[in-house]
Amino acid sequence: MLTTATRVGVPFLHCADIELPRQVAKLYDLAYNLRWSWNPSARRLFEEIDPTSWRHYRNPVELLINVEPSHWLALLEDGSLLRRYERVTEDLESYLQRRGGCWFDENHGEELTDGPVAYFSMEYGLHQSLAIYSGGLGVLSGDHCKSASDLGLPMVAVGLAYTHGYFQQTIDADGVQQHFYPEYDFTRLPIRPVADPKGGGELRIVVPLPGREVQARVWVAEVGRIPLLLLDTRLPENDPADRPITGQLYVRGRAMRLAQEILLGVGGVRALAALSIEPECWHINEGHSALLQLERLRQRIEAADGPRSLGSFVEEVRRDVVFTTHTPVPAGNEQFDRDLVERYLEPWSEVLGGLDGFIALGNADPRSEGGAFNLTALGLNTSRWANAVSKLNAEVTSRMWRHLELPRAAGAPVIAPITNGIHTSTWVGEEMGALFAKTLGRDWQSRLLDEAAWQPIRKVANAEVWNAHQAQKSRLGRFVRQQTRRQLARHGSSPEELRQADALFDEEVLTIGFARRFATYKRAKLLFSKLDRLRDLLRDPHRPLQILLAGKAHPADRAGQSLIQEIFALSQTEDFRGRVFFLEGYDMKIGRMLVQGVDVWLNTPRRPMEASGTSGQKAAMNGVLNCSILDGWWPEGYEGDNGWAIDEAEVSEELNDEEQDRHDAEELYRLLAEEITPAYYRREGGRPPADWVERMKASIATATPRFSSHRMVRDYVELSYLPSRS
I need a surface site. Which of 68, 215, 313, 577 has the fewest CB within 10 A? Predict the structure, then answer.
């Protein structure tokens, strides 16, 4: 059976063994469209069908597969459940069918008519049940797709379907990070095989690698109106050595990583061609997918009437390409040794007339020859428009790449800023969302980008804002106790110790959250650099603190893993036990819990190495106050009354890293002792802290409209997608 459901039609096949009664047959389509991940009503409906299965999997496809036929008999007698089913399924149908009324159609519907935007990314964070993401880049890509869907932008996304995803993390009793790679059964996830439009079953594409060809099956995830195509090499037709190409996200081996990026770029272009999808604009999100230009060059050269220079073809494929760079950290700019690249790109040599010219496009330093092949340089050199992900990040990356003679139209920036944003419906807590609806109207999301529309938040009674946040904080507390008990049990703790977990996490205590990738430049240890002062803050009898930390270090990052071990060990000492918690298994669920429930969001990168830092935006929208180095998005968001800046002065060029760390730690401890804790505990007559809640309201009113991914996608459309056609 062939079906299409997204705005850019992609036919798919049915693969899961799901049997539904006629009365609730539309649950099938509801489960396979990931709009449920940002629709609370849909999630509540699935939870009501089978609460135990939902709590365990948070995956409606798995839930429906496991529902026993006899279970439906009792459910169908519940008239209220059937009414909710009708409302939720009708809402999805209305959402998918709506054309007029979407932002894109109302503002640019006549400007992108020949084909969609093609968005390529190495990872996508849509929901924790679909583990094809590692962190910020993937969550950003997922939020981009969700906002593109909400705004009605014609778009198709392309990525890889990882058999084992990114690693799952546990922390052993000694604080050592353990890496676990589950094997996912794609037939039990909210994705389906793409059907070959020419008939014959599943769509397969073929990508040449040295001495052989590798096949990939194509899956599709429906992200609202956006189809996300995911390539998968786990096929019996492939050599066993090639099936793991889509095994793990961010493998350590360089040859395997290059094979993945060839599959993503070249295979993604071929998958779109097989579906007769001809994009009007190509968006390369970070250098990992820049090799799509290799395949587009091959197509142009083979279709040409006669011989021409490679440069003329490069100029053609550059005209409709947008490139986003996310990091000024050298390790984040993917590059490969020339010998490896020549070996793996050899299948294209004859068509391109030799690879020297193409490899030169990836030379990060044109002043030297024979260097490494850098995919960020390739993306910059073969795009018409390039952007970074915050204003400061654009300044840094422009300086970083100023030696390249980048092809840009007259007056166009070398690397422009489009500051990242977050998908509000995904990250706002249920209680805060209800407060927004009560204050701004049930249609508040339709006015998400109107800053004036958010000003009524500032006039809401302090108790209402405080109570909404405290409800989310209480949920976080229950989660922390549950996670801690589970971790202690795995470490072999006694029943008495497990019972003591019930008293952990005091919801009346000022709570600081810190969660991110444990790369050393993010300086998780800054807060722990003066242990005596930190202990005094944590154990203050009148104004205590507690700290929640979470995050992963890449399996190859020994320094990051050592940092986790050190912080975990501190959390087990007498001075810090019960006040410092390290939550293992960081994923989107834990991220949501933290940004919705802590009181202060701490961010301490070494400036200017933070590209954007969207976790702080998620926290701010929930009324959580940021305390951050002025890096990434925070220089654009900080207004003095909506959080705190750690050292407002520019970083002194006279300070080395060690001196800068001491300076920033001193300022952080000063803020905590003199401003943050006094403001939180300043209560009059038992009422919520007035100054603190005013800051919460300012945080919501300023951050929500400015740092929504709706604003980000709108900026991409108007600054790069549509201009790229000219």
Answer: 68
